[in-house]
UniProtKB/TrEMBL annotation:
Gene3D superfamilies xref list: Galactose-binding domain-like (2.60.120.260)
Laminin IV type A domain sequence ranges: 35-213
One Pfam family hit: Laminin_B
Name of the protein in question: Laminin B (Domain IV)
Signal peptide limits: 1-27
Spans traversing the lipid bilayer: 190-207
Native source organism of the sequence: Syntrophus gentianae
Swiss-Prot/TrEMBL keywords: Disulfide bond, Glycoprotein, Membrane, Repeat, Signal, Transmembrane, Transmembrane helix
PROSITE patterns (UniProt xref): LAMININ_IVA
């Protein structure tokens, strides 16, 4: 019975370590706007209507109305600081075009700023969000997508002062809502001690099994 118990213990520890090694770790930054604006606002010709307690995807969201002055307006995040860990990850967000009076037009979708420096992403196929429905968009955080050198990309990500997400899609009057802004990092490599622990337990399990036969 003692040998059987030891084998069971070693096997269980081995399985646990294998599971730990097979699940990648991610860093995530998320704005759900379920309770407030979380520091977001707008820039250019929009009246920021602020936080809305219901009607989001789900629950709360933020909303703005076009003033019609001509300059494309954006939803703007608070300063985020060093976001280098999100290089190679993904930025996603939900947009709701709640009212439109005019036609769609193209522009940069996402602008990431670092002081006076910035980089922008414009999708290959222009975004045309549906009316009164939530549409999810996403972009991989790579220098190629933001059309800058790797050095410029790394420099901007090292001190992000604002992320600007396009709110205006209509060359006329429009009202948009924003919800579920999410940044997810690329998979984070597991620390070497965990990898060594897994391989060590694998060897221990094999050795213990031979000894108890």
């Amino acid at each position: 019975m003692k040998g059987k118990a030891v084998r069971k213990y070693v096997f269980s520890a081995f399985v646990l370590c294998v599971l730990l090694m097979s699940v990648p770790a991610y860093a995530t930054l998320q704005y759900t706007f379920d309770a407030d604006t979380q520091g977001w606002t707008t820039v250019n010709d929009a009246n920021f209507n602020g936080w809305q307690s219901s009607g989001g995807n789900p629950d709360g969201y933020i909303k703005a109305t076009d003033k019609g002055y001509g300059s494309t307006w954006y939803f703007v995040s608070p300063s985020l600081g060093d976001m280098s860990s999100y290089k190679g990850g993904t930025l996603s967000y939900d947009i709701n075009l709640m009212y439109k009076s005019g036609s769609y037009f193209d522009n940069d979708e996402v602008i990431i700023k670092s002081g006076s420096s910035s980089m922008s992403w414009a999708p290959t196929t222009a975004h045309e969000p549906g009316t009164n429905t939530w549409t999810t968009y996403s972009v991989d955080l790579t220098s190629a997508n933001f059309v800058v050198s790797s050095g410029t990309f790394d420099g901007i990500l090292s001190n992000v002062t604002a992320i600007c997400i396009r709110g205006e899609y209509i060359s006329g009057g429009d009202i948009e809502g924003l919800d579920n802004v999410k940044m997810t990092s690329a998979p984070v490599p597991l620390p070497l001690p965990i990898l060594f622990l897994g391989s060590g337990l694998a060897g221990l399990a094999a050795l213990r099994t031979r000894m108890l036969k």
